[in-house]
Design goal:
disordered N terminus; 35% strand; four-stranded antiparallel beta sheet; alpha+beta; 189 residues; seven-stranded antiparallel beta sheet
């Protein structure tokens, strides 16, 4: 009996010493995702941040395009271009490129947009470049209008559409609703 008591006491002491020597696991705060800013030149700044599903969503600052930055006056279509290294083949082929126009009353519209009176804002893309077009559908001559126009683009990779409702049409967000897109992807308005 004495031997059993000694053995039990020894095991208890060894167990207590291991438990007391074990380091307590310290809670580490979850690391916050940091947004990265890229300077694309010509006043274009982009923010790259993690969106839903961990995909890197890219959005530009609001880009003010003065009337002198448009080309094609005297024809039915004037154009301006935004050069961006973030518009890759993968985004062009499988992702989504959204371009928003903010009018002088601060209303934000998804392109293509028809402001009325036979005019339409539209855009086209190639790798590395977004071309915004302002067309006069009634006259063949676009007058040199002394108005600045303001745009912002959002580049969404295909990896952000995975899961339920995946694909380029994401039922989780209405892309024509600028505020909903900002909220869903965490974009500063």
């Amino acid at each position: 009996m004495k031997k059993l008591l000694l053995t039990t006491t020894a095991i208890l002491l060894v167990s207590v010493s291991f438990i007391s020597c074990k380091k307590e696991k310290q809670e580490e705060p979850a690391q916050q995702e940091q947004a990265t800013t890229l300077n694309q030149g010509n006043g274009i700044m982009e923010t790259v941040q993690k969106g839903p599903n961990g995909a890197n969503v890219v959005f530009s600052n609001w880009i003010i395009v003065p009337h002198t930055a448009w080309t094609g006056y005297g024809t039915s279509t004037i154009t301006t271009e935004f050069t961006t290294s973030s518009l890759t083949d993968a985004i062009r082929d499988n992702g989504i490129v959204l371009v928003y126009y903010r009018d002088h009353s601060n209303n934000v519209r998804l392109l293509p947009y028809i402001p009325g009176d036979g005019f339409v804002f539209d855009f086209s893309i190639v790798t590395g470049k977004i071309t915004v077009k302002f067309r006069n559908l009634i006259n063949n001559i676009f007058p040199d209008v002394d108005l600045d126009r303001t745009f912002r683009y959002v580049l969404i990779p295909s990896s952000s559409f995975s899961g339920p409702g995946g694909g380029r049409i994401n039922n989780s967000v209405d892309y024509s609703d600028y505020n909903a897109v900002c909220e869903y992807y965490g974009i500063a308005k």
